[in-house]
Design goal:
seven-stranded mixed sheet, 19 strands, Lycopene cyclase family protein, FAD/NAD-bd_sf
């Protein structure tokens, strides 16, 4: 006997997004029953996170946004400043707690949804669906059977890849004494920080008002730093580069996002699917995930409401992933100066077109023209060597 049509493992961005879409009003008579499994509250509960994405005004999560920017700024390594306006797109900031509140409001009182707190140990196919096994907070066994399972948990290993980098960062929410921020402009990439020999590093500033902002230090490289390393980099950036003057740190956030040309399987069995980063939603060349998760879960929800329809294709096309593989290898080999590439692209390509390119939504001729703005010979050399490189696994 099944407990539900669908079991969703994990209540992060991907799990909550899928539950939210499966329970959308007006979804029709074919609404699946859902069990949402979330880890018991405790020391391993993830802290609140910040997600950023771009889309036109009027998005479904606009009422929950922390801030919105109509202009983006990039500083080159030499201090050159370029401001772009991505209209009709806007750059949006959403905090995970506010997003969860939106989802909670939709799920509350819905008889088709049940929530279970459990630590999941195993997910497997069965003869007529799938089964999730684990234990609750008191250690009692939990077993759930359903037609479909959607699993957002990361594995212990990343898929075999020719290049595996990580986007890793630490940010401070700061409150300054002086009015030093322009709340109309988000500083998207500030390359006036020391650059590593392989990969790149930049500052990232999201102003909330003239005195308040999220200030992050971000690096694309093979290995994360320790907390002390991030703190030194942030102190250098805030004191020496931005010259913020006295300020108070009101909060912190830190994270690591895989950037790899490995192929994330979106299916782990006949009735088991991967979603979120584990299902390939993260764009390898940028680390952006939230908008792709919305496309991924919307497609899955639509397929579930129409029995017999095929699952949607991977959220990032083969062409987009091939472009990402070239850029990642170029950065990892040191053959491509990442700070120079991104600075030049931002200065030469209309901002709206560049964002669509980074989202995998640009047209072929636009991709080719953007490619010509990169160092062509190093990129061509990278294209030639990629087929010869072995694929290796790496820890998540």
């Amino acid at each position: 006997m099944r407990d539900a049509d669908v079991v969703i493992v994990g209540a992060g961005a991907a799990g909550l997004s899928l539950a939210y879409r499966l329970c959308a009003p007006g979804a029709g008579a074919r609404r699946p029953t859902v069990v949402l499994v979330e880890a018991p509250r405790g020391p391993r509960t993830p802290p609140e996170r910040t997600w950023c994405f771009w889309e036109p005004p009027g998005g479904e999560f606009d009422p929950a946004l922390t801030a919105v920017w109509d202009a983006l700024r990039v500083y080159g390594p030499d201090g050159t400043e370029t401001v772009g306006w991505p209209a009709p797109l806007r750059y949006k900031m959403l905090r995970s707690g506010d997003f969860a509140a939106v989802v909670e409001a939709r799920l509350a009182g819905d008889p088709a949804v049940r929530r279970v707190e459990a630590t999941v140990a195993a997910v497997r196919d069965t003869a007529d669906g799938a089964e999730v096994r684990g234990c609750d907070g008191a250690g009692r066994p939990v077993a759930l059977r359903s037609r479909w399972v959607f699993d957002s948990r990361p594995g212990s290993l990343l898929p075999p890849a020719r290049t595996t980098l990580r986007q890793h960062f630490r940010g401070w929410f700061v409150r300054t004494r002086r009015a030093v921020f322009d709340p109309a402009v988000a500083d998207w990439m500030d390359f006036r920080v020391p650059q590593p020999a392989h990969g790149l590093a930049f500052g990232y500033v999201l102003p909330l008002d003239p005195h308040t902002a999220l200030v992050e230090y971000t690096r694309f490289s093979r290995r994360p730093l320790d907390v002390a390393g991030y703190e030194r980099a942030l102190r250098h950036y805030t004191d020496e580069v931005r010259k913020l003057g006295p300020f108070e740190i009101t909060g912190t956030e830190q994270g690591v996002i895989p950037m790899t040309d490995g192929r994330f399987p979106h299916r782990a069995g006949r009735s088991v699917f991967r979603i979120g980063t584990a299902g390939g939603a993260t764009r390898p060349s940028t680390g952006y995930t939230f908008a792709a998760v919305q496309r991924q879960t919307a497609g899955l929800a639509a397929a579930l409401r129409q029995p017999g329809s095929p699952p949607p294709p991977p959220v990032h096309s083969r062409w987009a992933r091939a472009l990402d593989a070239v850029l990642l290898r170029g950065l990892d080999s040191g053959r491509v100066d990442g700070a120079a590439v991104f600075t030049d692209l931002f200065g030469a390509v209309p901002t709206e077109r560049l964002l669509r390119f980074l989202d995998g939504r640009s047209r072929l001729w636009e991709d080719l023209t953007i490619g010509l703005r990169t160092p062509v010979l190093p990129m061509l050399r990278t294209v030639a060597e990629l087929p010869l490189l072995p694929r290796k696994t790496a820890p998540w």
